[in-house]
Every structure is written in structure tokens, then in C-alpha cells.
Amino acid sequence: MSATTTRSGRPRLSDRAKEERRLGWKLAGPAFVIMILVTFYPILQAVYTSLFQYRLTDPGSRQFVLFENYLIVLRDPLWWQAFGTTALITVITVVVELVLGFLIALAMAKVLDGRGLLRTIVLIPYSIITVVSAFSWLYAFATDTGFVDPLLNSLTFGIFPKDFDWFGDFWASMVPICVSEIWKTTPFMSLLLLAGLTQIDSAMEEAAIVDGATWGERMRRVVLPNMKSAIMVALLFRTLDAFRIFDNIFIMTGGSHDTASLSLVAYNQTISRTEVGLGSAVSVLLFLCVVVIAVIFVRGFRVDLAQGRR
Fold first, then answer.
1. Closest alpha carbon to 228 in 151, 165, 304
2. Half-sphere exposure of 92 (CA within 13 A, CB side)
3. Helix ranges, 10-66 (H)
4. What keywords appear on the UniProt entry (predicted)?
């Protein structure tokens, strides 16, 4: 027992538990301090800059405007359009990656011979730089150099056009953007889910087989409940990452046809228009969105990391 219960009902840590906690802080403390310095300084700098009307091309006219930049951003339809686009891409990619990643994790868990080679092959897309991956899929969906249109034309017996413009409107552009994101990051999802699968006691599944449970029943009653923590962690990590999508959209569409994400809006304001104050405000709002998503996942879905380690 590492803790006892006080009269108020609160658990009281034992001396051993307190010593372990102090040791944990001593071991993780230096890395934690460095992480705070590296992470929080840019955030605080962005918050500070967002309170000023500031252009890089005219630094002398810097003026303190408090929260005016935030009001300008939130009143701009471009922000809400980008927010909707970012949310749509996040939902589509994360849901598809969860399904595909789970199927791949099941396959990797069943393979005995060549397991290391299989996992290495699966990780290849994730190891490719995002910019390189985005350019590859850009060329794949291009009307002159791509193989997607001829392939779909062949599979549909000539019904699908050979020169379909995937970047001609919003919904068509969503296909290559989401496909490139799913192709690259599904391996990450599958490895997280595979870690959850390996923690399930095989005796439980064997007992379910003896009781006559079908594959679907075993998945629903044995596998999924026991890897709930791994699923939630995978969803949390991927949602936070997908909500910050930038490279694929920047390379494929440049934000045309209302495909701009929140990260691209921040880039355009800060770099293209040199509006550092407005760009910092967009970045801070994006950071707050990510924080809200993390809180919703952790508190709403009750992610229990300790349970995932047992």
C-alpha cells in the first residue's frame, strides 16, 4: 500500500510514496524546466506581440491596441471559414486513420514471422518529410503528371474522366489533402493502437473463444474495452496534430477555394502580409483551440494513462 485514507476520505501518501514522488521530480525536473523554457517563451512572446498593431515593414508605427487584434480576427469571416475547414479535415482524417490504424494494428499483432520487418515497412510513410509527401501527392493528383485520374478511369471503365481537376474547387481539393494526411500519419496511429493491443491479456480472449464468442463480439466486449486508454491517447495526439495542419494545404492549394487552415491563415498574416500583431493573435487563438481540444479529451473522455500501463 502506497497510501492510507484520512478521516476526510482523502488518500494520504506514505513515506515511500512521497520519496518516489520526490525522486520522480528530481529525474524529470531538469527536462521539465528546459521544456517550459523552450515552449512557453515563444507562446508568451506571441501573446505579447498580439497586443500591438505591428507591421514588419513599418516597425516605427508599433502601437499598443490591447485586444483589438483578437476582435479583428474573430470578426473576420476568413477566420471562421478556416476554422471550419480545419475542423472538417481533422474529423475526416482522424476517423479514417483510427479505423485503418486499428486494422493495421490487428494485422501486425497477429503476424509472428517477420514482425520487425513488417513494422518497419508500415512506418515508411511516417518517416517521410511532410513537404516531400505533400509534393508527391500533388503530382499524383495532377491532371498532367498524376496517376490517380488514369487509375480511376480504368477502374470505372471510362466513367471517371482522365483529366479531372482535383484542385478546382473546395470539395475536390479536400480529397488529395485528406488522402496525403491519412497516408502519412496512419502508421503513427497504428503503432499507438498496437501498444494497446499488446497489453490485453490473451487469456481473456481465449476464454471468450471457448465461450463461443464471435470475432465481432470479442472485439466489442474484450478488445475495445481493454484498450480504451490507448484509443483515447491515439485520438488525442492525432487530433492535436491534425488541427495544426499546414504543409499539405500550403503546397497543394495555397489556401485557394476556401481550403486555408488556421495555421495557413497565421502564416499569411505574419509572413505574406507582415502583420505580426494580427498573425500573433491568430496563432494564440489556434493555441487556445488546441488547449480546449486537449481538455475535452482528457476530462470528457477521461483518458487514464495509468490504466494503460497496467
1. 304
2. 18
3. 15-49
4. Cell membrane, Membrane, Transmembrane, Transmembrane helix, Transport
Total number of residues shown for the chain: 310
pTM, 2 dp = 0.84
Amino acid identity of residue 192, one-letter, is L
pLDDT digits (tens, 9 = 90+) for 2-59: 445 555 555 566 777 778 788 888 888 888 888 888 888 888 888 999 999 888 888 7
Q: Within 13 Å, how many C-alpha atoms sit on residue 165's CB side?
A: 6
Which residue from 3, 6, 31 is spatially nearest to 18, judged by alpha carbons?
A: 3
Residue type, 195: A
Q: Where are the beta strands (DSSP E) in the chain?
A: 3-5, 11-13, 52-55, 58-64
Classify each residue of 188-216 as buried b or exposed e, where b means 16 or more C-beta atoms within 10 Å of its C-beta. Answer: bbbbbbbebbeebeeeebeebeeeebeee
Exposed/middle/buried for residue 92 (C-beta within 10 Å: 0-12, 13-18, 19+): middle
Question: What's the pLDDT tens digit per position in 211-266?
Answer: 777 877 887 888 888 888 888 888 988 999 999 999 999 999 999 999 999 999 99
In angstroms, the CA 268 to CA 54 distance is 15
